[in-house]
Amino acid sequence: MTTSTILLILLSVIISGVVAFYQYLFKVDNQNKTNWLLAFLRFISVFSLLLLIINPVISRKIVETNKIPLAIVADNSRSILELKATTDALKLVETLNSNSALKEKYEIQSYTFDDTFVAGKSLDFKGNQSNIHDVAVNLKQLNKNAFYPVVLVTDGNQTIGNDYVFSFHESTTVFPVVLGDTTTTFDLKINQLNANKYAFLKNKFPVEVFLQYNGNKSVSAAFSIEKNGKKISNQTINFDAKNKVQSVQILLEADRVGLQKYKAVISSSVKEKNTYNNSKNFAVEVLDQKKEIALISDVSHPDLGAIKRAIESNAQRKVTIVKPNSINDLKKYNVLILYQPNASFRKVFEANKNLKINTFIVTGMATDYNLLNQMQSDLEFKLTNKKENFTTSFVPNFNLFAQSDIQFSQFPPLENPFGKITEKGSVNTLLKAKVNGIEVGNPILTFSEKGISRNAYLLGENSWKWRMESFVLNQSYEKYDLFIDKIIQYLSTNSAKKSLLVEHESFYNSGETIEIFAQYFNKSYELEENANLSITLTNKNTKSTKNYNFSKANNGYQAIFDGITPGNYMFQVKETTSNASYNGTFEVLDFDVEKQFVNPDVSKLQQLANQNNGEIIYPNQIEKLLQKLLQKDTYLPVEKTIIKNSPLIDSLWLLIIIVVSLTIEWFTRKYNGLI
For the residues 263-279, what does the mean pLDDT come to? Predict the structure, then answer.
């Protein structure tokens, strides 16, 4: 309370006394008890009113004692059931939660976790995943800036989430209580399998497998990969006490187009307690990228051999050199390379009007440009008979496919007639023409795209010198051949941009959340934010069908399924407005990730205890844990002094005093005939 407020209160006392004295005691001949009572009541009333006007702030010190939180977190996943540790878990949690000494010292917080972190849920051990990292993240949010202990009742086997050893706050002390039998049990396990989603036909694709052994003796295991129940790869893997983890790399042959399903299996002659983790399924989609290319020419030129070699450096390409008059069936070719077309090419152009096979036109001094002006609408040629040498400059903002500058400016010049080449349609140029270092406005290499039709133009002969120069610069043909392969890849893909894109896996494990992601694009190929997407899911075995709607997600839409039973499923995603659709399949495997453990992960829990200044505890050491938690010099409650400021005007008692004093004064005066 300030000095000015105190002075005002003293002044209020004087004013209240003067008013009471003047009204009931001044010039009163007979001062009896009634006068003194009325004067006192008037003093109280006036003084209380003046206090309300002054409204002094009254400060009070309040001491609060805050108990340290004690987080008791129990594992509610199915692995506890598989390790036959449910009884220990329930007993431990009940003992800790009901201990009166702990309740007196701590603010007990009881949680459970599986794939999510939940407060106050009873244990039923039905969780399909274990995420200890999520426990650490949530406790950080709930108990910010607090020094507190955590009792983590778990087997330490995490199936999802980041490494939990370093996830807890550095000031948090963690006591892991180990659930499950720690006796070493013989077990072979496929820990992780890595494989590409796609492979090309007649190519080999890599598979990387990490195998784990739990035991102390030396053992030989048979590792194999099966396809349609037949072994396609088999080898022996040796383990011992020092080599408990082995990495295996295998090359498999992609011999058939489509989704190919495989199964990795590890086994030994020793009987295992748990064989659930001895196999793992995976799938690879094999694509046929074998392309037939017709290199049509009526002249002999070194360019033909250079183009053929560059293209066929990719084993998925086959080039056939033919003359325009001898080619009969264009249908079997994916791309037509028309080298210096002349009048004899008219039949080829006419035949391709209906087939619409993408073309790569290479011009030169023997080209009939009048024919080209008639047969294509991308470029207009106004050229003379004079020969000119054109060097190139790279266009960095070219965006049809990814292509870097492979030192095009250092390549030898191409020969082509001098004149003007005008772009009639929408073309995308990769290389521009230069004469004596000056750009002349003509393209050297340009592309056009109309719907699903794609064409390329290389305007000049002697590109064989480019390939030779690339070898001189790089000691390899690789960069140049890859450049040509990208052109062929672009031309051999007749895919218009799809309006509906869907992402999904080929396999899912039973019990895990299945998520299918979709994107829908409008006619301008912009992501449509108000699309109406639905999915029809059909079990191939039971023929039962369910319909779901997609919900909005980040940069698209998603459909999430829980509780899908094992089996093969087909589905159709459909956009209601446009009727755009996508059909796909996936398989739900009868695989429970929580069943793959035979022992608790004691080493991981020990690391966690060491990292967070705790100590690993076993179920028979619960008294030891209680002693550590109840030590007098640790985890002491925190006392906080709070200064609470209360304005007097908020006091109800002062108003009551005013009302009571005025009421008594009025009745007293009325009783004594003073009113």
Answer: 90
